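Pair request: fold both.
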Amino acid sequence: MMGIPEMKLLARAHARVNGAIASADTRSDAHKIVDALIAERGQKIMEASWWPLAKPVVESVLRYPEAVRMAETIAPMQAEAVFEHLSGRLKLDVRTLNSERLPTSGKIVIVSNHPTGIADGVALWDAVKGRRRDLSIFANRDAIRLNPRLADIIVPVEWRSAFKTREKTRETIRLSGRAFEQERAVVLFPSGRLAYWNDDEKRLCERPWMSSAIALARRYEAPIVPIHMGARNSGLFHFLARVSTELRDMTVFYELLNKTGQRFSIHFGKPIAPDALEGRDLQELTERMRAHCFETLAQDPDADFPG
């Protein structure tokens, strides 16, 4: 049985070990944020007994070290420099059609289907930067966690239901209002989630859209430029989607980094005047806009919006 002196020695030893462990954490802030973002997407998996054995393999497959280096590189950059860096790194093969339909100035709402994730925003940047660089993109708040300066371009939206607050909602509303006051090009991917593979139809399918895009266009009397974006995620992403939503979501950085040189086809539809959106049911208009962007413009870029 240990006496008090031995117990004090043991306590001091534990303190030294814990202090050494704490001081040994030499990860950069960006590195810690990448770890947090992945952990938030894979909470149950990381609590599993087999995770310590699988972790090195999973991190290697998902290009985790490369994701950390990328995050550390962009962490100190200004917002526009981040997009230019990602553009130069990925070198996407962006093919545009009818990009002249995007006005070079004035408030506008750009809506698009959402086939791949973060890379969709980079592809859109590449597609429009020759005409407009004053973008305000509604995107996951996680981007701001990596680099707060991205708030100059990104309107942050909280995707984690447990972390949604009135304050964050008010911030999103305030920043969107400011974007329209400044007559910027406001970009939304109204599904808020990535397209999924439909086994029965043997194709990608766009998820249901939220009504926020049309609601904003109505409120601020802004025209809408509808876009169809053609691209897809890897087979690994769609395989993991069948196995585990957490494993699927943990590919967030992998599905950005693996897009190097990938083709993105972007069809600009005809602008839709604000008055064409008035006097109609919001949900019905939203569903028509989803079908117009995802299906119609893919086949007929000159089609009129059937409002």
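--- second member of the pair ---
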Amino acid sequence: MTPSGTEQHRMIQEVYVLLDDGDRRVLRQFQLNPTQYAALLLLAEHHGVRLSDLSVHLLIDKSSTTRLIDRLSSLGLVERIADPSDRRVQRIGLTAHGRAHLAKVRAAHSESLARRWAVLDGAERELLTRLLLKLRRELTIIQHGSEGGAISSDSD
């Protein structure tokens, strides 16, 4: 019998909670939470991200983004960069310390993920990945009418 959408949704939520708990345990060792880690990962890929774009990407409001950046800045992980074309705009980038710290966090997180995902063999992981990509693409279109927003950075 095929599980209902409600049952599948509940199962996805339960797996998410378990994965999130594992992530939090690892990140706590580095004085980070999952949202802060997501911000650091984004900033590692896109130097000079606008605060407003960071808010959209992280799905948090601008005041929460400001507090998040204040916290990461107090840890010496990020810096605010004046936008040369518009002084009203602040861009955010990783500091050298932020890049080094992120490398350590990534290594610990990757090790933790490898242990947790080892319960699935290669074929199962490939199938799960294809299904999740399809679900993400379709839900994004249904909920946002497009394939998502782009991140604006200096490297674009």
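Observation on the second member. Confidence is low (pLDDT under 50) at residues 152-156.
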